[in-house]
Amino acid sequence: MKGPGAGPASPEPGPASPEPGPASPEPGPASPEPGAARPGADPGSPGPDRADAPKVRLRGTRRPPTRTSRLLQNRWAGAAGLLVALLAPFVNATPYALSIMTSAAIFVMLAAGLNIVVGYCGLLDLGYAAFLAVGAYTSGVLATRFDLPLLATVPAVLVVTVLAGIVIGAPTLRLRSDYLAIVTLGFGEIIRITANNLDVTGGPSGIYGIPHLADGPVAFYYLTVAVVSLAVLGAARLGRSRLGRAWRFVREDEDAAEATGVNTYRVKLAAYIAGAIWGGLAGVLFAAHLSAVSPASFTFLQSALVLMAVVLGGMGSVPGVVLGAIVISLLPEVLRDLADYRFFLFGVLLIGFMLLRPQGLWPARSKEALRSEEALR
Amino acid sequence: MTQLVWNGLFVGSFYALVALGYSMVYGIIKLLNFAHGDLYMLGAFTGFAVLGAAGGVTSAAALPLLLAVLLATMVITGLAGVVLERVAYRPLRGAPRLSLLITAVGASFALEYGTRAVAGADPRVYPVRLGGTPLEVLGARLTLQQLVLTAVAVVLMIGLNLLVTRTREGRAMRAIALDPRTSALMGVDVNAVISRTFFLGSALAGAAGVMAGAYYGKIDFLMGFLIGLKAFTAAVIGGIGNIPGTMLGGLLLGLLESFGTFWLGGEWRDVFAFGVLILFLTVRPTGLLGERVTERV
């Protein structure tokens, strides 16, 4: 068997915490002054090469871990995050706060799904909200038309989102990656306009009266947190699986991956479908949370915000992406007065991050990178 | 029938103008400039501002004035494109493709919402409106203004094509498209040529923006999003990176949309256009003229 994409995602034994950080012990003795010496750097270049350093640094794998990054790599970071999420309702349980927190949790799931596509596999999906829409509309329409409980619609949602992923992914993934970006952008618009025009989906006003998944907002919040944690954990495990390794290989060098026997097309399609499933399931939660869906929720803005969360947190880094999603979804609450400038700021931040810190706030450190770093020493 | 063809050609000439910038930039540095549609929007708003500064407009002088504004706007949006390239894209040349694409999305956002912050979220009404009396030609109703706008678009496209195929500058562009490093060794100032390419592409988009503003009468800060997508579709249909192909693609997309609207209804127009895009990428990703012409700009 040559293509890892054919095999099932076999999770490696490892700690079941959602961060993909090094399970192996920290690499060798760190130099006393981090930054003064960069072991991975070209030995000919001077140490603190501020002046002639390339503007774009590669992913932060070449430097010894600083104290902060060690803290961030801690395997308990995920558990701590979950604990915060579980305790949050005890601090503030007004319906409004609960609603915001539920939305944030759903947004985390979206970001974790997009991270599979963009972060692991390096495919830019600019229409990710389309999968959210497909999931939300499928479950919403089925639940309201046939009086089904929302849970019963999940299999249908899975089938439909996977189909949608294949329909978009199959023709475009053979092409250059930038075609995918713009086709997904178009796809996002197609889904939104279609939902707007069809009668089944209720036209511009959408569908409403979608049944709840749990009794009361608190129970739903906990249910959402549970589902989202599983989703994040699943995404992290997937990233460390054989398939996940193939994804990163494709991201770093597609030709080399192809040459070593990775069926890049299938691997990419697998990433795209996985992203679609995450988005679709988040859509079910979304529909249950709002009890109504309308086309206005699935604009390009929504897709761009998810992308922003992934980029801000650190592409390919699960804890980073979770953090990024929480920041992006709670930011409007904090920056209420700056509403007009918020998206302008987002755009500038996207450029700024790509120019100055492409690895994001909480970068991913893959085991492979750490190993090769040790080998270089 | 003739009416449909005419409408399609008219809209298609806008698409072609915007698509050319996409195509040129893509041909040279293989970058999908997502912000290109927003340069079109910026052109419409710049034209609006310039017209506002020019003061009262009498309808008799509307067309010549509009042409002057068109030129001014082209210079301004062209410079905006150069600045964009310098700030957002040049530092990332050689970086992973994903970074560039994300930067382009960021640039698009910054332009859209920057314009919103400056000009407000509400649509603006263009001070010059080209209505005009309709003429009957072969059973189609078309106005003098439509004819003039189409003529301007055609002149700009022919000019661009001459520039690319007949001048030194154009030769440099084609050389960079083939191999930037070798062209640098041959004495081509690669950065300067890329800057000028951005200038040209952005200027064309700005011109299309002013023309669309004057024709449709209303502009808003998100107007570039959809047209950016459509322009990309046009470029893909014709063969991205290929200038005559892109023009052909623009006109063809205009025609397809015109007929699609007629058959399916206006609300499905955009779905139809993107469906064509996906179909083309599946069946013929190089576009109509993508393979035959090997020289790419």
From TrEMBL, chain B:
UniProt GO cellular component terms: plasma membrane
GO biological process, one term: L-alanine transport
Subcellular location: Cell membrane
Membrane topology: Multi-pass membrane protein
TM regions (residue ranges): 6-27, 39-57, 63-84, 96-114, 144-164, 193-215, 221-240, 247-265, 271-290
UniProt xrefs under InterPro entries: ABC_transp_permease, BCAA_transport_permease
UniProt keyword list: Amino-acid transport, Cell inner membrane, Cell membrane, Membrane, Transmembrane, Transmembrane helix, Transport
GO molecular-function terms, A-Z: L-isoleucine transmembrane transporter activity; L-leucine transmembrane transporter activity; L-phenylalanine transmembrane transporter activity; L-valine transmembrane transporter activity
Family as reported in the entry's similarity comment: Belongs to the binding-protein-dependent transport system permease family. LivHM subfamily.
Protein name, per record: Branched-chain amino acid ABC transporter permease
Record organism: Planobispora rosea
Organism placement in taxonomy: Bacteria, Bacillati, Actinomycetota, Actinomycetes, Streptosporangiales
